[in-house]
Amino acid sequence: MWKILVVDDNFTNRQLILEILRDFAVCDVAANGREAIEAYNQSLKKGGYDLVLLDVAMPDMDGVEFLKLVRENEKKAGIPLGEGLPIIMVTAFKEPVNEAFSIGCDDYIVKPIDPDKLISKIKEKLGDPK
Question: How far, in whole angstroms, is CA 11 from its chain's centroid?
């Protein structure tokens, strides 16, 4: 089973993703970037996440800010860009995705989420779940 952090400010979107991934992953959820940072930091003490599904537009701290913090943390740890935690942006918007790619996101999926596409994109990054 994969260990995935699902970050989205919309409860229904989080529940949909959890339902899609229920047979493939153990998921933690966060409703905004600040909760995501807390979950991310806690996970590092236990081996970390395999992947993050990250909403772009959220109140308090958006997905791009979270992405920046993770990539800065990895850089400080000597992890080259492209070799760190896989982060897939989940968005209804195209524009922020360009900025996210420049910061180091690994992929994106557009809402509404197609379950098969989501599983396929995750498998591209992680292989089959164990």
Answer: 16
CA dist 43 to 33, 50, 73, 128, Å? 15, 10, 14, 21
Whether residue 86 is preceded by a cis peptide bond, meaning omega within 30 degrees of 0, is no
Asked whether residue 129 is domain-assigned, the answer is no
Domain of residue 21: give its range.
2-124
Residue 130 lies inside a defined structural domain of this protein: no
CA distance 18 to 99: 27
pLDDT in tens, 57-88: 888 888 999 999 999 999 999 999 889 999 99
Domain count, the chain: 1
Report d(CA 106, CA 86) in Å as an integer. Answer: 6
Give per-residue pLDDT as tens, 36-59: 999 999 999 999 999 999 998 888
